[in-house]
Amino acid sequence: MNAPIDTKLDLVLKREIKAPIDLVWRGLTDPELVKQWFCPKPWGVSECRIDLRPGGEFYTVMVDTDGNEYPGTSCFVEVEKEKKLTWTTTMHANYRPAPPFQKGDKECAEMPMTAIVTLEEEGNITHYTAHVMHNTEAYRIKHEEMGFNEGWGTAVTQLQDLLTRIE
Question: Percent of the chain, pLDDT > 70?
Answer without folding.
Answer: 95
